[in-house]
Write a structure and sequence with these properties.
Blueprint lengths: L1 H12 L5 H8 L6 H16 L2 E11 L28 H13 L4 E6 L6 H17 L4 E5 L7 H7 L4 E3 L9 H4 L5 H13 L3 E3 L2 E3 L5 H14 L3 E6 L16 H14 L4 E4 L3 H5 L3 H4 L5 E3 L11 H10 L3 E2 L61
Parallel strand pairs: 1-2, 1-9, 1-10, 2-3, 3-4, 4-5, 6-7, 7-8, 8-9
Helix pairs in contact: 1-3, 2-9, 2-10, 3-10, 4-5, 5-6, 9-10
Bound molecules: iron/sulfur cluster.
Length: 383
């Protein structure tokens, strides 16, 4: 297919596709799906080989958020029966992180619900970062604490944070439909603050919230412009008790097309499959490794992922390898700043589903399991 040959050539040259080309990827038929995966897979292998970076989420503070992000189980008014707890102590967080690191993760993503941290919160997280770094040489730490005020990114960087995650989530034009308590511009501003402080910026999206193909392309092009080192791609987890509980729009094929489009637009960036991997890709997860070079190991913030052991087996069975701490994630031309391996954390508030292109899914609430183990519980984490 001419389109795919063109996109591979551009991806290998780090050239931006046109919007029409990105839209055309989303519009491909199921008959062409393996060709799309193979083409985007060439770009992925060119920049990242067969390595898969593992990231591990620690939810430092769960639930009770005053913001109203519709996709989020921790939002104001959420009826989702999730764990709710306030700040984990540095020791508790470090212990939770240790399980993920023992399972092969090289990055720990410290996430807290809320609009943004107070200066006291930044102190707490700084202590946690130090506790983790003291115990685990070479670990990368990404913070995801919401909107940052002036000077906070610098303080996190001084405390040893390598990266900061703040997702754009959706296109600027639909942002107001998803959240009313803060703006798209607020989010962009925080990504800029992270960049300016020398943190590796991580910013991504949520697919499956009822957005159009144009919205998806818009947000991915906006991300390319922001130039984060990593782009987490969430697929909406339609949590019961949230406004988007009925949004079951994604199919595994649709998820693969979205990941391929993100890879073509952001060829040399860490593309991470984030929340919703198991729920929406299901048995097609191994194919997605040909597109993304990074996943979360084990559980998400408020929902359970597949067993960490199953993640590791999937990577090996699909012919990929877990990226060690001795490898720099990003290609040399990107690896100069920040942590030297760039990438970012686990999206504050997981998510999603998507429509268009393929038939909508039937609702499958049986696939969504609220997290009941790991951080904030007495049960062993899944890693
Ligand atoms: S995504 Fe973050 S800011 Fe939004 S409701 Fe969830 S925890 Fe709060």
């Amino acid at each position: 297919m001419d389109l795919l040959n063109t996109l591979v050539d551009k991806g290998l040259r780090r050239e931006t596709p046109t919007r029409a080309e990105a839209l055309a990827v989303l519009a491909t038929s199921d008959d062409d799906l393996l060709d799309v995966v193979a083409a985007a897979g060439k770009v992925r292998r060119h920049w990242f080989g067969r390595r898969v970076k593992l990231n591990y989420l620690v939810n430092l503070k769960s639930g009770l958020c005053p913001e109203d992000c519709s996709y989020c189980s921790q939002r104001l008014g959420s009826k989702a029966d999730i764990l709710k707890y306030t700040w984990l102590k540095p020791d508790e967080a470090s212990q939770a992180a240790a399980a993920g690191l023992a399972g092969g993760a090289k990055r720990v993503c410290l996430v807290a619900s809320g609009r943004g941290p107070t200066d006291r919160d930044v102190d707490r997280v700084s202590d946690t970062i130090k506790a983790i770094k003291e115990r685990h040489e070479g670990v990368e730490v990404c913070a995801c604490l919401g909107l940052l005020s002036d000077g906070q990114a610098e303080r996190l960087r001084e405390a040893g944070a390598d990266a900061y995650n703040h997702n754009l989530n959706t296109s600027e034009s639909t942002y107001g439909d998803i959240t009313t308590t803060h703006t798209y511009a607020d989010r962009v501003d925080t990504v800029h603050k992270a960049h300016a402080a020398g943190l590796s910026a991580c910013s991504g999206l949520i697919a499956g919230m009822g957005e159009s193909d144009e919205d998806l392309v818009d947000v991915v092009f906006s991300l390319r412009e922001l130039d984060p080192d990593s782009v987490p791609v969430n697929f909406l987890i339609p949590f019961e008790g949230t406004p988007l509980a009925k949004e079951w729009n994604l199919t595994p094929q649709r998820c693969l097309r979205i990941l391929a489009m993100v890879r073509f637009v952001c060829p040399d960036v860490e593309v991470r499959i984030a929340g919703g991997r198991e729920v929406h890709l299901r048995t097609m997860q191994p194919l997605a490794l040909h597109l993304a070079n990074s996943i979360f190991l084990g559980d998400y913030l408020t929902s359970e992922g597949q067993a960490g052991k199953a993640d590791l087996e999937m990577i090996t069975d699909a012919g990929f390898e877990v990226e060690g701490t001795d490898r720099v994630t990003l290609p040399e031309h990107r690896a100069g700043g920040g942590c030297g391996s760039h990438e970012g954390g686990g999206a504050c508030g997981p998510a999603a589903a998507d429509s268009c292109g393929s038939a909508a899914e039937e609702a499958r609430p049986d696939l969504v399991a609220v997290r009941r183990r790991g951080a904030g519980t007495d049960l062993a984490p899944n890693a």
